[in-house]
Amino acid sequence: MSLTAEENAPAVQQAPAVGVHATARITAADRGGVTTLPVLDGDGPFELRRLRSRGTEARVCVVGAMSAPLGGDRLRIEATAQPDTTLHITSAAATLALRGPTPDHATYDVHLTVAERAELRWLPKPLICAAGSNLQQTWTVDLAPTARLILREEQILGRAREPSGHVATRLTVRRAGRTLLAQEAAYGPGAPGWDGPAVLADHRATGQLLIADPAFETTPPDVRLLGDAPEDGHAVLTPLAGPAVLATAVAPDGLCLRHLLDTAQSTVRRPAQVSEQ
């Protein structure tokens, strides 16, 4: 039996895919005045668990099912709060970004959609950027005119007694299709001046708290400086050009950072206060 040239050629080995590609989806819907979760679809390192409801809200905890994000990973979470719902999303533990099997960066994208008269609370544990990690993280938020949002994000730059990994973040918030907030930041090796006196100096924890509420159209919060002791960090609370307020904080560690952000939230007068648990 004779073989053609194509049949006689050695088999080509396909290069294995490097990194995990995963998307988790959460959808909250109104059912008779109670928020339900018709879509709760975990994937890859994301295991989604329903928590006990409080009143009419639905609560979801994101549990890490494997080490992630690593270099080369492409991770995404999509959460939608449909009209007249309240959705609270937290995480079981801090997210730890690590060096991966490839020098390529990892991505972690969060896309939140909040419909009319809905409220979404995105309150996970911090992101820890271990030495050698390289992460690009984005938040994209679309708000309806009557939607409410509470979004907290915290970065801890390096574990105890180790240098920081590299992290680049982008936050984009649109309300009724118009940009409410757009900002970028980068920390760690390769980010110019990130540890200089104009940025973090000796601090290794940074984060912010964004609260958007239609009530701020008539009663916007005042500018406030927070933090009594310089060694414990500082925060500033500022109203945005729209019905929202942003608190930005830098601190020596995650505990001080959370205290500053909790203090910022407690100073903002809203129609309803929010539990951090």
Automatic annotation (TrEMBL):
Q: Which Pfam families match?
A: UreD
Q: Superkingdom of this entry's organism? A: Bacteria
User: What's in the keyword line of the UniProt record?
Assistant: Chaperone, Cytoplasm, Nickel insertion
Query: Where is this protein found?
Result: Cytoplasm
Question: Primary place of residence?
Answer: cytoplasm
Q: How does it assemble?
A: UreD, UreF and UreG form a complex that acts as a GTP-hydrolysis-dependent molecular chaperone, activating the urease apoprotein by helping to assemble the nickel containing metallocenter of UreC. The UreE protein probably delivers the nickel.
Family assignment from sequence similarity: Belongs to the UreD family.
The protein's job, in short, is: Required for maturation of urease via the functional incorporation of the urease nickel metallocenter.
Protein name, per record: Urease accessory protein UreD
Gene of this entry: ureD
